Amino acid sequence: MYGLPKTHKSGNPMRPITSGVGSAPHQLAKKLAKPLSDLLGKTSGTHLRNSGDLLNRIKDERMNDKKLASFDVKSLFTNVPLQDAMEAVRRALDDNQDIALPVPKADFIRLVRLCVEFGALEFEGNEYKQIDGLAMGSPLSPVLACIFMETLETDHFLNIVGQSTTWLRYVDDILVIVNKQQDLDSVLRKLNDVHPKIQFTCEQEQDGKLPFLDTLIWNRESRLMFSVYRKPTNKNDFIHFYSSHSQRTKTGVVLGFYLRAFRICSKEYLQNELEYIRTTFTKLSYPLGLLLQLEKKAIKIRSRSSNSNATKRKEYISVPLSEQSEVITSFTRGALNITSPSGSTIKDILRRKKKASNQNSVVYKIPCGVCEKSYIGETYRGAAKRVEEHKRDLRNHQESNAIVQHVDDAGHLPNWSAMSNLCVGLNKRNRQAVEAAFISTISNFNGNSGKVKLSKHTAQLILKNDFRK
Ligand SMILES: [Zn+2]
Asked: How far apart are CA 245 and CA 240, in angstroms?
């Protein structure tokens, strides 16, 4: 688990992420998320795919006597109760029998449950299990959260806001268009009474405008207009023209700005946005000619994509950035896209690297100096330190220490210098299991069978498992 700071919120709270990449259920979760995403929008019809979808659905809205507001669910993912989410999935699948599932429905639901209940995470070297809520980072979480929200909308939220209200939701962000007289504070109270875990905050339009996703929505002259929204934390800090990124990356960034301008902006705000792109990137040393060329290219792409919806997928290969990558691009023109691995991101810098295994975490053996028995112990502080502590116990005649007891009972002193590590670098749980396994198989004078209870067979299995290092 790691956290990413929310730079746009005061106090910079952390967004916790448990990355499931590489974990056992991650691939399965990806496969299960696909058919589930076909269910989105089928229950309540409020689901938004992206900001383009939003614009299409509200651009013709008549705004006479209406106002804009947005509701935001606080920490949606971690607050969705697993039980309720599973129930919502079952209901949505029952209502939509035509959805193609890779396995029979009952098995499908069991697999989804298996994935969401897995929730294992590691933090600062300790292992934890998430007992409720959806994991931030699982491919199933967004789609399950949405399906859960859709059932709440159908059963409660849409009734509370009333039929005349437009209610559109992108995951946990909801845009509403309501009558000017409607008391949104009382609506907010009613919404928050529905489910103790699902709590909303409300933001109303200010001076006839409201930000939603990457769009600033303007309520002017009884209709809606749109411009690009940038968070107040935006610093216009994009890739400099003389940065050693590939030419493709740099033109790609600018082209993305132009495409978004054409996609979002109403004609009233388009010139402003184009001007913004020009000044911002001129300051970053981009030649004006290149900017104008990219603006034209964006217009061409827009007209092409509105004429044909068929998008051909190209294959990508990743080549380390060098002079040659430009040459390769020109050779493979059209057939292949070349990308370059990106450098470190803020995430790479902030994220705690997985610690190397602790070499002081050991299961060790101290043989008796006379008979064939040994003492088996485990520690995360290194065996040498423990040997010193055992010697001190002997001097102080600490009777609870098994070594001291063996000296008392048999009169045998341990052979300190023959102390050896049986295994190194395990985490606490595995270390204690391995200790117990050795105690049950090696002749010893330990006072007890270890901190973990093991059957003879389990002990043998554990020791077969290559822990003897
Ligand atoms: Zn002995």
From this structure: 9
Distance from residue 439's CA to the centre of ligand 1 (Å)? 15
Calpha distance 232→465 (Å, rounded): 55
Based on the number of CB atoms within 10 Å of its own CB, is 421 exposed (0-12), middle (13-18) or buried (19 or more)? middle
Mean of the pLDDT values across residues 325-346?
A: 65
The predicted model gives 91-99 an average pLDDT of: 91
What's the gap in Å between 454 CA and the centre of ligand 1? 25
pTM of the model: 0.66
CA distances from 23 to 118, 247, 377 (A): 10, 36, 31
What is the distance in A from the centroid of ligand 1 to the CA of 409? 9
Q: Determine the distance separating the centroid of ligand 1 and the alpha carbon of 403, expressed in angstroms.
A: 9
Residues 6+ apart with CB under 8 A from 213: 50, 51, 54, 170, 173, 229
How many whole angstroms from 154 Cα to the centroid of ligand 1?
74
E-assigned strands of 113-199?
A: 120-123, 126-129, 166-170, 173-179
Question: 29-56, pLDDT tens digit by residue?
Answer: 888 999 999 999 888 889 998 888 999 9
Q: Is the dihedral of CA 177, 181, 182, 185 positive or negative?
A: positive
CA dist 329 → 62, 290, 375, 420 (Å): 49, 19, 65, 58
